[in-house]
Amino acid sequence: xxxxxxxxxxxxxxxxxxxxxxxxxxxxxxxxxxxxxxxxxxxxxxxxxxxxxxxxxxxxxxxxxxxxxxxxxxxxxxxxxxxxxxxxxxxxxxxxxxxxxxxxxxxxxxxxxxxxxxxxxxxxxxxxxxxxxxxxxxxxxxxxxxxxxxxxxxxxxxxxxxxxxxxxxxxxxxxxxxxxxxxxxxx
Length: 187
Prior knowledge:
SH3 type barrels; mainly beta; 3 domains; CATH 2.40.50.140
C-alpha cells in the first residue's frame, strides 16, 4: 500500500479495479478543511485519462508493472508479434492496444513491453526518440535555406513528419515519439 502523500509522477497504482499511472499530482492544503491530493491518472488498460481527487493520506495499492525488452517481428492481420530475444518466446498484441506506438515501430526494433503480474499485457513503451528512414518526400529547392520552411515526409512506418527542406529521400532522421516531430538528422 502507498499513501497518496507519497505519489510520484510515473508511479502505477491499483484504484477502482483498474491499473492507473500517475501523470500529474498536486498536494493542496486549503486554509479551511483537510488537505487533499489532486491527480491526473491514465488508465493503462484503456488509455483513458481521468482527474481524481484523493483525501491526503489515503492508502492505495501499488501496481507492479514489469517491462521486458522485446523485438517487434511483424504484423499478423490486426495482431502484432513481439519476441523475447533471450527466450525466443513470442507474444501477440492487438493493434488497437498499441495504435499510437505503431506509428514509430518498425520490424526488428527493440521496445519495452509492459506486463501486469507477468501475465496481462498492457502495451509497449517507446524510447523518447527513434531513428526512422524517409521513404517519400519532394526534392528540396536549392538555396531555400534562409527560411524555416518545412515540407512533408513519409517515414518507413507510414508516419507523416514535417521536415526541413534539405532532408532528402533515403536519409535517416531522429523523430520525437512524444509528438511525432522532427528532431535532427541521424549521424
